[in-house]
Structures are given as C-alpha cells and as structure tokens.
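Researcher: Quick one. two chains, 1617 residues in total.
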Amino acid sequence: MSQIVQLQNNLGKKPEAANPDNTASPQSPSSGLDRIREELGALTGKKYWRSLEELADRDEFQKLVEREFPENASEWNDPAGRRKFLKLMGASLALAGLAGCTRQPTERIAPYVRQPEQITPGRPLYFATAMSMGGSAIGLLVESHEGRPTKIEGNGLHPAARVADDIIRSHNLDGEARGATDIFSQAAILSLYDPDRTQTLTYLGDINTWAGFLAEANRIRRALLLAQGGGQQNQPGQSQGQANQPAQQAGIADVEPATGHLAILTESVSSPTLAYQITGLMRDIPGTRWYMHEPAVGDAAREGARMAMGRPVSAVYRFDQADIVLSLDSDFLSCGPASVRYSADFASRRRLDQQNAQTVRLYTVESSVTNTGAAADHRLSLKPSEIEAFARALAAKVGVAVGQATASEAVSRHQQFLNVLAEDLMAHRGRCVVVPGDCQPPQVHALSHALNQALGAAGATVTYIEPIEGGVGDNAVGTLAQLAQAIDAGQVYALLILGGNPVYTAPADLNFAERMRNIKHRIHLSLHTDETSEISHWNLPEAHFLESWSDAVAFDGTASIIQPLIAPIYSGKTAHEVLSAFTDNPERSSYDTVREYWMRRFAGGGAAPANPARIAQPNQPGGQASAAGQLGNQQTGPGQPFGSSQPATTGAAAVPAAAPTPTPEFEQFWRRALHDGVIPNTAAQAATAAPSPASLQAPTQPAPGGELEIIFRPDPTIYDGRFANNGWLQELPKPITTLTWDNVAMMSPATAARLGIGKQVNGVATNSEGYTGGVFSVDLVELEYKGRRVTAPAWIQPGHPDDCVTVTLGYGRRVAGRVGTGNGYNAYLLRTSDAPWFGTGLTLRKTGEAYPLAVVQQHHLLDDKEIGERDLLRSATLAEYQKNPTLGHQAPHAPGHEGGHPSLYPEWEYPGYAWGMAIDLNACTGCSACVVACVAENNTPVVGKDQVMRGREMQWLRIDSYFKGDLNNPETYFQPLPCMHCEQAPCEVVCPVAATVHSAEGLNDMVYNRCVGTRYCSNNCPYKVRRFNFLLYQDFYTASLKMLRNPDVSVRSRGVMEKCTYCVQRIQEGKIQAELRDERVRDKEIVTACAQACPTKAIVFGDINDESSEVYKMKHNPRNYALLDVLNTKPRTTYMGAVRNPNPKLEKA
Amino acid sequence: MSQDQPHDQLREEITISPPAVIGPNQTFASVTDKISSIVLRRRTPWAWFLGAGIAFTLMMLMLYTIGYLVLTGIGIWGNNVPVGWAFDIINFVWWIGIGHAGTLISAILLLLRQQWRTSINRFAEAMTLFAVACAGLFPLLHTGRPWLAYWLLPYPNTMDMWPQFRSPLIWDVFAVTTYATVSALFWYVGLIPDLATLRDRSRRHVARIIYGALAMGWRGSARHWHRYETAYLLLAGLATPLVVSVHTVVSFDFAVSQLPGWHATIFPPYFVAGAIYSGFAMVMTLAIPLRKFYGLEDFITMRHLRNMAKIMLATGLIVGYGYMMEAFMAWYSANPFEQYMILNRMTGPYGVYYWMLILCNIILPQILWSRRMRNNVAVLFIVSIIVNIGMWLERYVIIVTSLHRDFLPSSWGNYTPTVWDWTMFIGTIGLFFSLMFLFIRFLPMISIFEIRTILPQAKVEEQEPTEA
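Model:
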C-alpha cells in the first residue's frame, strides 16, 4: 500500500517538477497513465527514450501496466474520497508500525502436569482452576487438548472437591490428585462453548467497542466524582484527582454531575480480589454502593447466625465425624457450596466392608423431595412451616431454653419420631450434627446452632468460620430490596450488574425490570444475552471462568487462583476488568489485578489487603481482614507460602499503598498456587461463636393463609436459571423425578387426589404415562399466590408432604438462547422478597388442559410383586446385613455360578487385563455427576425434549431410582446403570455385521464404523443400555461445539448404535503409559469418567484379574450381586446392595 | 317348514357333488380366449384405472417416505429405545407371511397333485413375489444406514470382514433372498407357455416382440413340454422346503433372542402356520374381487374358495394353539419375566391389541366351521380381511408388547407409530397392488395351459390312446 502512495505521489509531483509551467488544473490529470504521457510529452530525443526506458523499468510503471485501472481510481477522482483514503492509509501505516513495536504483556499460566514445551499433540494437559457458584468455589482440573479445554475434573487438593483422605495419585498424570465434581462443574465446559453466549459488546443494541465502553465508564466516573465535589475534596487516594484534573484543566464540560450514586450489583462474591476491587472502588468513588443478589442461596443462614451469635459466621460441617446427622430441610448432599465434599464425607461413614460395619444414621426432616431425603435412614416429610416448630420442640427436648414450646400439630403427630430422634442425638453427644437448610428461615438456623451447641456438636462436628463471601463479613453489601428502595429514591445514577440476571431472578414484588428502567446508566456484564440484557444500555460479554483470571474461595475459606484455559473466545471481559474501567487504570487486565492483590497479600504475610472502607460498620472493623490477620500471625513457620519472606503484619496500615513488585519468592508462590489449584493455609480459622439463647425466644408466627403452601427451590439441574441454555443439564434427568427439560409443580399423591389431579389408580393419584417412550401427560394447573398467577404442569411425587406444592426456579426463561428459551414456567413470578422460600396462601386450579413432560423413567415400587421378583435392587437394614451379609440372597440362582458353564459358546479367557466395575448402591446419592461426566467425556449428543419424549435420550449412563415402602413416604434408592459388559453378552451374538464384539480384556466393544443400525443388539439387551442415533443428533456444524469435543472419542453420526465403553479411550491411554513403564497398569490408574466424577466413590473401576485391586475386593464382598443374574449374562458391572441404618425403635412393627 | 326343503336340497347338493374346479361349458378355446382376452382383447375396465391409480398414488407415498427416511434417519418413525423394532419388522413379517400361500399353493399342492390349485396358483405366486418385494424393503430400510446394508452379505472385501453368522438376521438374509429367487424362477418358468400363447395371439407388433422375448422361443413341442414338466417339478421340489424354512428363520429373529415373549421354542411352527394362514387370507382377499370383476367364476369356483377357507380354519387353529401354549408356558415356567410378559400382553397398555388379535384370528374365523358360511363369498371376503388384520396385530403384539416392558422396569416405555410409520406401511400396500394391477393387466392371471389340463376334454384325450 505504501508503494502505491509513493507512486501516486511520484506521478503527481513529477510533471510539476519537470514542467513547472504546466498550467494543467489539479483535476485534469485524472489517471497515472495521463501523467506518464505528460511526463514523457515534455521530453525529446535521447532523453525521451532514456526516460522511457527508465520509466519502463520502474516497478511502479510495471505495476501500472499490469493493472488496467490504477488502484483506487475512483478515490483519485474524488477529492474528498482521496483525502479520506490518504488519511486511512496513514492511519493504517501507523498502526502497522505500532503493532510491530509493542509486545503483548506476558501472562504466564502454569500447566498442572507438564511444562508447556512438553505439549505432545494428542496428549492432554491438565490445569488447575476453580469454578465459583453461589458464593464459593470448587477446585477443578481441566483437561486441555492443544489449547482447548475439553473436560473438567475435580481437583483432589481442593477442599470442596476432595473425596477421600487417601488422595488417589495417578501415575501417568504425575502428582494429580483426583477429586470429584458436581453436575454444574461438569457441565460448565458446555457453557464455555455455548454458541448462544453474548459474543459482542453492545450499546443500545448496536455493536460497540470495549474502548467505547471505557469512555462511557470514564464519563460516569467523572460525573460521579463531580457530584462528589470533583476531586477538590481531600481524598486519601490520589487516583481520582489525577483522573479528574486533566479533564477539568482541559475545560471539558461534557459531563454533568451525577444525580445519585453508582450501584454495583453482584451475585455472591467468592473472589477476594473482586471484593477488594469493589471496596476499593467504594473508596475511590464515594457514595458507591454494593448490592448482592443470589437468588438460589438466600441469606437465611447468614441471618440465622446473626440472630443466634450476633454476627454472620458460616458453619462448616464435618460429616466424616458424625454418627447421627439430622437435616432440617437441608439438601446438603446435592445443594450448596460443599455438596461434593459433604457427600464424600457422609459416604465415607456409609461405606461398609467386612471389618467396618459402622455406619452413620441420617434423619431427614424435609419439606420437599431431595437426594438427602433419599439417602436418609429416617425421613419425615413436613410442611416447610412446620419445621420450625419441630426444631423448637426438639430443642426443648434436648434442653435448649427456647421459651414457650408452641403446641404444634406437626409435632404431636410425630411425637414418637421426635422422642426417638432426641434420644438418639443425646446418646451421641459430640458425634452428632444438626444441619439447617438454606430454604428455612433464620429461626431454624438459630435453633440448629443452639441444638448443635447443646449437643456438643459445635467445635466437633460443626465449626464456625468468619463468612467467606466478599463483603458479607463487614456488612458492606445491601440487598436487592435495598437497591430497589435506592432506585425509588432516585439515588442510583448508574447500575453496574456484574453477572447474574436480576430482571429474571428478582422477587416479583420488586418489579425490578420497571425500576431498572429509571436508572440513567445501566451496564450489564453477562455470559448470555438474557432478560436483564434487554433493558440494559451496555451489554458486556462476560468471560467464562475458563477464560478468566480471577480467584475464589471454597466453603471453608481456602482460596484458589482461577487461571484461564483459553483466551476469551468472544473477547469477553471479567468483572475485574469492568471494575477497572471505573478506576484511573481502566485498561488493567484481570491478570494484573489478581496478581497485584495476591502480591499485596503475600507481602502482608497472608493478611487480606484492606481498603479503608467508608461504609458504616456496626461490627468491629474489617471482619475479613481480622480473620485473615490471625491467619497471617500463625503462618510464620518455614515452608509456609505466606510470611516466609517478611514477618506477618496485621491490619491494613502495614499494607503498602504502592503497587508491589513481584519478588522471586512471590513468583514461586504464584506458580505453586496455579499449579496446585489451592493456596495452602488460606482456610478460614475457626471463629468462636456461641449462640445466645435469648435469640430463640420468639417463634415465627405462621402467616395466615389458605391451606396450601408453596415451596420455592432451586432447580436440581439448571439451578437458578443460569444453566437454562446448557443442554447437558436440561437433558439430565432430575434426580428422583427423572424429569428433563421442564419444571413442575410437585405435590403429594394425597394432595393431588384431593384436588382431583392426575390419574387415579387403585385410589392413588399418579402421573399418567403417555403413548410413547418418555412422555408423561400431566394436568396443567394454575397457581395463584399473592395475587400472581402462573400455569404449571402438576407432578405427583410420592414422599412429598401433603398440602404443599414445590415449584422450582430457573425455568420459563424468555431470553436464554436456543436451548433454554421457553422451557417450563417461571416460578420467580410468584416469589416475593418477604417469603423467598415458602409461604401459605397458594390456591391451585386445574385448567383442564394436559401437558406433555419428558420423563426418562417410570416409577416403580420395589414392593410390587412384579418388580420385587426381579431382584433388581437389593437393600436391607444394618441389622439384617449383619445377620446375612448377602442381603438375604443366600446363593445366586444363576446356573452359571454353580460351577458349570451352561453356554453353547466357549468361555472367554483373559490372560491380561479384565476390566470390571463395581457400584456401591449404599454410597450412591443419586447426584448425577457421573451422568454429566459421561456425556462430557464421550461426546454424547443432546437430543431435545421431543426426542426424550420419544424415549430416545442418549446418555450412556442412567440413574434408575426405585421406591420402597409406604408411598406417602417411601425409601428411595438409586442405581446407576452403565453398560454391563456381559461375559455372555446377548448383544454380541445377534449383531449381523459383528459391530459389537468382545474384546480380549472383556469389554463389549462397539465398532461404530461397522454398525449398520439394525437395533437388534438393543432389543436383545436386557439392561437396555444401548443408545441409538435415530436421527442426526450430533451438531456437526456449530464451530464452537467442535472445540468442545473430546478428540479421543469418535463423534457418532446417525444410524449408529452407541453405548458405554468403560471409557475405552482412558483404558488405552493408561495401558500405553503402563507399557512405557514396562509394568502392569496399577489399581486406580485408569478411572472412568463416571468413577472420577463420583463424590462418594460409589463407582469403582479396575482390573478384576488383579487381586489387590479395589474392584476385585468389592466383587468379592458378600453384598456384591449381578443385576439380572438369572439371565446368565455374567455382567462385568456388578452392584453392592444398599444397607440402611434405621433406628430399631422407629421401625414399624 | 317351507324353508327346510331348499335347505336340505342345498346341503345334499354340496355333500354329494362338490363344486367343480372349473365351470361347465368350457372348452380349450374358450379357456384360452377368456383368459388371454383379459390381457389382449378386452378394453381395460375403468375400475382397473381407478384401482391402479389409487395403488400407484400410494406407491408414490411410499417412495416419498423412503426418500425422507434415507435423508433424515429412521427417527421419523416411532421406534425408540425399548422398542427398537416396530412397524418395520411387523410389516416385514406380515408381508413375508402373506407370501407363503403362493409358494404353498404352487409347490406343495402341485406335488400333492391337487388339481384345484391350477386356477389360483398363478396369481398366488405373483402375490408371493410382490409380497416378498414389499417385505424385503423393510429390513433394508429399517437399518440406521441402509446404504451399508450390503454388509450383511458375505462378499469378499479388503477388510476381510464377514457377516456374523451367529446372528439370525444373517440367516434371514439367506432365507429371504433364496425364497425370492426361487419364487421368481418358479413363477417365470410357469409363465413361459402362456407367454408364448400371448405372443401368438397378440395383434400388436410391440406386444408380440415383448411376449416373444419373454417366451424364450417356446414352441410347445413335446420336448419343450417334457423339459418344462421336469424343470417345474424340480423347482416345486426346491420351493417346498422354503415354505417351511423362511418363516422358521424369520421366527428365529425372535426365538433366538432372550426377550420374554420372543424367546419361545414354539415360534417356528407357530410362525409357519401363521404365515400360511395369512397367506391364504390374502389370496382370498385378492381372488374374490378378481373373479367378480373379470367374470372368472368358472375358473375360480366355490370349490377353490371353500378349500382355502378350510385351510384357513386349520392353520388358524394351529395359531390359536400357539397362543394358548405361549400363555401356558409363561405360567408353567414360573419365570416371573415370562409371567409378567403374558399378563402385560393381556392387560397392559396394549391389551386391546391382544384381545383384538384373539378376536380376529381365533374367534371370528370359527364361523368357517359352517358350510353355509364357507359358501358365502361375502363372508369369506370379510373373514379374509379380518384374518389379514389379525395377523398384522399378532406381529404387533409379539414385537411391541414384548419389547416395551422387558426386564428392567426403569427402561420401560411405550410405543406409538408416527405418520411416517403409516405412510411406509400403506405405501407398501400401494406397491403391492400396483404390481398386482400391472400383473393382471399384462400377464395371464390364471394359468391358461394348466386350466386346459383340468378340462374334462383333457381327460378324454388322455383316455383315447389307452383305448386305441
């Protein structure tokens, strides 16, 4: 391009130089050729020819000859265009030069396993990071194939993902500690590649630039500062003075002083850096306020602690230490920040082997149907409003001064249960724990704290720590309701929403969408374009956590650095970067921000660097800082990451104000933190807190209302709605109901019968099964609560308490993306800020219409004769187990086990490995993490509601659930069902093209390329674990989804049968690694995706030829049994029966 | 009282002299004229155009369905995971079963020297062939990747891959292809003398060339006849075991599996009986309107219809015994899976289909015990249709109700056909009738030369040389 400019310059100038007399007007020589003619025309003789030759030899001329028209001829003709052209030309030249001179800042990330230079194509690398949700984080190890993350695993070093004390260290992944995960972290990888993510930054719906936003942020900042006195004030930091003064000096008056303050609305903040940044901004721009809205967590736990102990401490439970656990409407096994760890700890006490017949006993008092209730030894279903009375009565029995014990119908109805429970708890002083649920009011939390205190649990099985969420400890945050008040008062000049979707999730009475429209500047940072984006001025694409630098703390306060696995795919920004936009260093990267925070903290010996906060603090200053200060004091020993370079100092005063520089010690610390995924010794210290009995005196008076109660719960799979566009989670059968793609209004059979809902079968109301595979046709009902109405499908759930209806949040999304929009109904429309979790006064009306639901499994009572005879799921009480460890099954009645081999085909021989799996039904809590892990590992497609309704879901692993006992309060059991890999596989003999064959190691291999799709194998499979691609389910065309896929697993097209392979790709990888070491694969070196994700280690995989392997031991446990043994299929996957530990005193006669 | 006499007379008439296999007053010339004129002389009746038009439209529907199916995948049908096979295999078995009557009539009855077969064997064989064509479409198209269905054939290939011979589907491939080949040969060989007749009698040049080519130079010489008879008998001998083998092998698709409701040793005989049952029902369904529209009452007489009704009654009872034994074995086995299967078959979501099947296949056809009913063409026609429906329902019940609730209740699921299941099924009926209409228009639907052999004149001639 520059040559062209030169040419044009040359051609333009030369005639003038050679022939200054020429009076041609500037416009007339319109083309290069004319110029040449002119140039030559002025010459004569030899000179002419020489010039001609010279001219002909010139590159420019040759280019001119080659081109018919001079480039940009039209612009040459048009004077205005030409100018613009030249300007652009100059600009691009300058840019090219600049780009060549600058260097991108280096942001080092440390590979977990190997140095980046060791990247071998085809060999994944693992990086540690963390995912935070609901205010705390789980540590993850993310598998990365050539720079693209493909699979998420738990980081066994991280407290929230640790599943056992004996951390499994894999040999091929040197030093990797395997942890477990939950469904949300497994599915997060799909959210990263979601093609519906916000891809561009928009302002008023038009595409804009980051620079444009930075300018806007700067204007807002200056307007806010002007309103505050424009830097004339004596502010502690010099920053805003600097930022403001040039503007004022330059006399720029483009900003009016702000009319109000800057409001920052966040979800629960688990990032210390972000909290630090926000409080810093609150200092820099006085008047800035921080509001927090976490729709699915609520503040009952915080308020309960405040009520009981005067400050919002958090409780951390030690289920591995508890013999008796009482859950007061708490779903600690599947909900909440530590569900993975709690499941692991709980299951470790449930684990039964021949030596250790000890087991925990779980009492659950709950108002809905949850996995925790399903795991209970005794489950009581009460209306949500009755649980407080129950807890109060229990507290009175245990000896807590609770004032007057209100006479409650619920308590008298379950007096026996209460007495036995109280006795059992008191008999296990210090070895029991009471866990209140997030959905229960603060009173129940306060009562639980008092109960734990009285039972000696506090300090033993429950410890208290200072709150881990940013801003909570020092009361820096307001609620959404307070934000609404501030908006009404006209105090909010600009609203900065950092994540979350408040327009959708806000309580209905706040009318948040309408209120938000009154704010002058509305900025929204989000992963997806959602309901809030619709009414925001600025929509900033958010960087997914796998694209971000950040940090996060776990439920116990342990911090992790979140490191990116990939550069932001859609130029997303982190909350750190958006906040920086409002500072004097607007283009600061989150890497710098996070690192600086940790540099300061490192320099401070572990103490959180405190911003001198300007907000009112009723408590002692900086609870978080002081907690961390204690931490710093302790950590002075050698080898500690903090405090080894400098003596620890407490308090904010010692923290240097200037940005610290990285010391070598810090670099070492930083790399270690990135590598390990946890920052050691950052766990919050135990706080001494004792509940004051005075707080428990006033029982909540139940609000008068109708007879029906409404219960709000986060959805089991799509949570508060944030995963609405995640197909894996939408299609994941919700535990127990096995419902997909919808939410329902759940009620008990008795309530349904009373309201005339459902189909009556033998006097019991049930959901009616539809005409195809997975359809249930249910009644649509209209729910009316506090004057608001929604229409919802009614679902009849055995075990649900009577006279109440559970609705789950997260559905009915209007703007979510191609997957999430329009599924289910929006329960937020009924939710109010005064009763976020339950309330009375619900009325329910049958609309008379039917609604189809996609349900994966019909439900069956194990007590039914037809089902019971099938010996599907063995279960027994602990007493029965001790009497008969085979759970009542004396001898397997399959002929194959009597020594003979009753088959026409010869027996297989396995000289090498023989892979097998054992699943401990006693440990399984039905959390479904294995199912999502399998989907993620094996490139399993999402088929959509319509196909699930036709019975064509594709998950290779399913979790069957069965009920036992009284339909009003049944025992629930889960049975994960992968491919059984039968020795005598019925599928193998019937395949006409040998597409499913037996491997030399006992795997039942599926050869996709050979499959023609007769489906005979599926018909002949008694376990129905085969999945057929009836249509083209895989999305082969969406570019971002191509990056998602595991390159080790074939992507199946239509017409092909597929099924669980025992993760054959992992087996092969493990074998190759073992072969390189010239030894046999060691036990647990190879772990299937399901086994790896399992928090309770219910799924164990290994070599059954290896007598030292865990799977071998499990298969030789008396509880071990083969499903459908009588068919003589000899499955390689076997089960260990479930053993419950009911209190003999509560057993029915 | 007055009614008694004609009644008795009728009874007497029937018992004493069964209706002839050919009407009176027929001569060699009249037989040839009558049958060949349908093809060569008579104006094509409007009803043919109407019928062929409808059939052809339905065939187009089938082609459209196949196009959509191959482009989209078999997910357009209602098959799902417990019910991996549904309409596809139901229709396959149904069509294969229908084909059986043709082979039975032409081969076994030939060997048994049953003269009455001659007037129905030609179109019964044609029916076999067309039914096998319809049947063959389903196993091909029911695969997920029909373009690779040739992998079921043992052909030499660079992958050194052979089919998996333990699979009954491979046995099926051999059974059905053999059956189709032998049936086609048998039918074609039987046509040759008549094709020569048509060649000789046709007035149009093009027709003469075509029929001439197809007649393969048949001149009716004694040597020709000698070889023809030998070949035909040999083919009949070859075809005879196929009557039993094909449906036996088809039943192995089910019996070899371990699914309750499929895994039963009674399946082979029960399937063969069922096939003959439905085959004769279909012959009847076709013969009754044909003889009516083309005035062929002299060739397809009441004797034929009555004989076929008797065979239907007999095979229907064998099928009924099969149903009984299935239920008995389920109870007697004390196998909970089998017991639940039969209970679910009778009382589950598809219980109506089961009882409909019992009604159609067992109860209603008992009407054929009555001679009067056997002589009533309308009754026979209705019964034949009912049996066709009943046999289709039988396959529906065997396939769908066994699959939809097998061992693990967690994987149970219902099945409902989609519109594409129906268009495919109805479309093959269209294909079948399109071929049938073309056949009756362009080929002699009754064997001319064989009919001539059953004329009384033929017997006289036979006797002459012995007297001489």
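The first helix of chain B runs from residue 4 to 16.
Researcher: Thanks, that's what I needed.
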